[in-house]
Amino acid sequence: MARNKYPEVTVEKILEVSQRLFIEKGYESTTIQDIVDQLDGLTKGAIYHHFKSKEEILDALGDKMFFENNPFQAVKRRTDLNALQKMREVIRVNQLDMDRTEISRQSVPILKNPRILAGMIDTDRRVISPLWLELLEEGQRDGSIHTEYAKEISELLPLLTNLWAAPSIFPASQEEMFCKFAFIKEMLERMGVPLLDDEIMQQVRNSLKKLALEE
Questions:
Q1: How many angstroms separate the CA atoms of 42 and 155, rounded?
Q2: Phi and psi at residue 89, in whole multiples of 5°?
Q3: Which pLDDT tens digit goes with each residue over 143-200?
Q4: pLDDT tens-digit map of 106-129
Q5: For residue 40, what are the contacts with CB-CB under 8 A and spacing of at least 6?
Q6: What is the DSSP letter of 171?
Q7: What digits encode the pLDDT tens for the residues 5-37?
Q8: pTM of the prediction?
Q9: N or C, fewer C-beta in 10 Å, the chain?
Q10: 193-202 long-range CB contacts below 8 Å, 24 or more apart?
């Protein structure tokens, strides 16, 4: 496999092997050498040509898994749902992607890295916020959402869920984490966007319990 001739193939292979190892062994227990050993003759130099660290691999893997199973794309053309229901379905589809949920869980500690954190904020701004905005504006048109602050909410949602709710950035107990989501729920309802229904809140509770058991 020629690294310089087919760089996209090399990157895909690195991410494919890393995903399997991170899920099987865990991010912390997987070394760069473990990844190299599964790469059919590629060297550490080939990995470091594309990724400066294991943290970068995990960060890129999270992006790759999102775009391969983009929950926004999955609900975009559904005519059986109004925009608010589509937004709730985005959350449910995201939660059902067990491999990506596991990778996201393992990504929490690397958010302490300022460069990784800055990159995530930039992705949220450029990619995730516009996707939320599209659904919020659709909801304004179909009457399922009643807010004058669609743009502001679209920018705030990723910040709240990806940063404020990240225990590596804002340390919190399981109950404190649930209270944060209860706060988000009430705040959005008061802003005319009742996004977090009882079913989603129960999913949040279950996810937090699962995380607590795995720690």
A1: 41
A2: -70, -35
A3: 999 999 999 999 999 999 988 988 878 889 999 999 999 999 999 999 999 999 999 9
A4: 776 667 778 778 888 888 999 999
A5: 1, 13
A6: -
A7: 446 778 999 999 998 998 888 888 899 999 999
A8: 0.80
A9: C
A10: 193/84, 193/87, 193/136, 193/139, 193/145, 193/147, 193/153, 194/84, 195/84, 195/87, 195/88, 195/91, 196/91, 197/88, 199/88, 199/92, 200/88, 200/91, 200/92
Total residue length of the chain: 215
C-alpha–C-alpha distance, residues 58 and 103, integer Å: 8
As a whole number of angstroms, the distance between CA 38 and CA 48 comes to: 15
Give the tokens for residue 5. 């001739």
> Which amino acid belongs to residue 48?
Y
Describe the chain by its helix, strand, coil percentages, rounded to 5.
75, 0, 25
H-only helix segments in 124-173 = 129-142, 150-158
- Between helix 98-107 and helix 7-25 the angle, nearest 10°, is 90
Contacts of 56 (CB under 8 A, 6+ apart): 116
Q: 26-64 burial, b for 16+ CB within 10 Å, e for fewer?
A: ebeebeeebbbeebeebeeebbebbbeebbbbbbbbbeb
Residue 167 structure tokens: 């225990």
Three-state secondary-structure class, residue 53: coil
